[in-house]
Amino acid sequence: MYKTLSALAIFLAGATASFGQTGKDTSKVLLPKTKQPQKVNSITLHMERMAGIGPDGHTSSFQGTLEHLRKYEGGKLYPVMKNLPTDLTNMQEFCYVLDLAQFTYQGYRAGLCSKEYMESHLSGNKFNLADTVLLSKTPLKCYVSAVTGIRDGKPVYKMDVDNDGDFGNDEYRPVLKDASSEELKVSGSVPVKITYLNNDNKIVDDKQLVFVSPGHGNSAELYFAFPEFNYMRFTYKGKPYLAATTSFRRSGIIVVPDRPYFDRMANLKTIKQGQYISLGDDEFVLSRIINNGNDIVLTGADISGFGDKTIAKADAAKVSTAKKGTKISRQLGYIAPIASGININPAISSTGIVSTAKFKGKYLFIDVWGTYCGPCIAEFPHLKEVYSAFSRKDLEIIGLVDDRAPATTQQIFDKHQLPWANIQIDAKTSQTVGYKDINSYPTTFLLDREGKIIDIDLRGEALMNRLKLLIKGS
């Protein structure tokens, strides 16, 4: 299923992951059955899967114990495992959900949660409820289960590799600490059986490579990582390109001119569904990432520019006629979506609707943050320093808040006295559709005087230095 590390010459430079691909590309190719090239606007590209660190570098996500999660509404959604170990001390159970929408939906259909909880939970996690029609009515293995503890004085774990709800046939494995190398993460990973609904509405068996590591001095946490990604090489109008998914395969892709290897790519290069891929002077929309990350669908310009061995499927589709440079997308080099709403920061005596559109002619820094995001709040002193270093004719800041606890949010405003307007992302009075799917905080965007995004996720001194170069005489 997986290509080996050596087959694609994965390169590591210190703690920074680099990877490269050499040799023959074995991506499957299915060409339309026609003697003449067809001018169509939608193509599906198939990508090979590889075990290793993807273009987003070493990433992991922590998960609390099932004992903790079951205290809350929705706790019944998690599986009740059979044959829990009896020879472990300090035993803890964990369950990591790979597809939250499918997991919650199938739990609702099984009577494990109410419809109101399902709708609230999915909406709160930026899922479009209309897309439940795309989910499987048959339960899927869309999660992984593990149990940890101490055995013979050493930390160990069991992973339910068959995903059959039973630890009885699973073996103990050592919990590895400080596993920062790619080779160690891959060799220490476990392939877990999962299932997914493919684009033909059929349930498909697959394997998910999973690596676990202990929490930072906290036995009630376990970190999950997924050291695999998909990639392919292709040509467009004679120029070679390389495309690779992020490690959590369905979240986005990165497309760059082909090269023997390249270092970890910054978040600003990640392209998500609905965003644009630029190939020379032409643009394509990443319409969908399907089949568990194995295929990507692009729509846009005439696909005759692609090499014959690239296309897996081609179909006619409507194409945007907007000129390049005027399209709206939350990407580097594109016009930022407009956000507007009522200011909720009491330190600002603004009336009426606050809108990012009103700041054209100035550099605008958009800070997307959440009430319970510690790093977001820790950044406020730096932002206030930046705000005071430049005049209002040159720079403005606006906050978009995932306000999950209004009283707590107001306490934050009172303590930090932010001198710029803030808008609730999910308020009925807010128009923030271009930002509602953001679920990682803080996420920031720096816009030029024309409203085009010129940098993403700048913080601290990096933001100050960037603005000093842009705004002369400061």
Q: Can you describe this structure in just a few lines?
A:
With 474 residues, the protein is α+β, with helices and mostly antiparallel strands. The protein has helices at 66-69, 100-109, 115-124, 182-187, 374-378, 380-389, 406-416, 460-470, and strands at residues 12-13, 16-20, 42-46, 48-51, 61-64, 89-97, 143-151, 154-159, 173-174, 190-197, 203-214, 221-225, 228-236, 239-245, 253-257, 261-263, 276-279, 282-290, 295-300, 313-315, 340-342, 353-355, 363-370, 395-402, 422-424, 443-447, 453-456. The strands form seven sheets. Strands 17-18-19-3-20 form a five-stranded antiparallel sheet, with no helix packed on it. The protein has a five-stranded mixed sheet with strand order 25-24-23-26-27, with no helix packed on it.
Shape: globular
Low-confidence stretches: 3-40
Sheet of most strands: 5 strands, antiparallel
Number of domains: 3
Between the first and last Cα atoms, what is the distance in angstroms? 56 Å
Count of helices? 8
Q: Count every beta strand, where a strand is a DSSP E run of 2 or more residues.
A: 27
Q: Going across the major beta sheet, what is the strand order?
A: 17-18-19-3-20
Using the CA coordinates, give the radius of gyration: 24 Å
Pfam families: AhpC-TSA
GO biological process, one term: cytochrome complex assembly
Main location: other
Protein name: TlpA family protein disulfide reductase
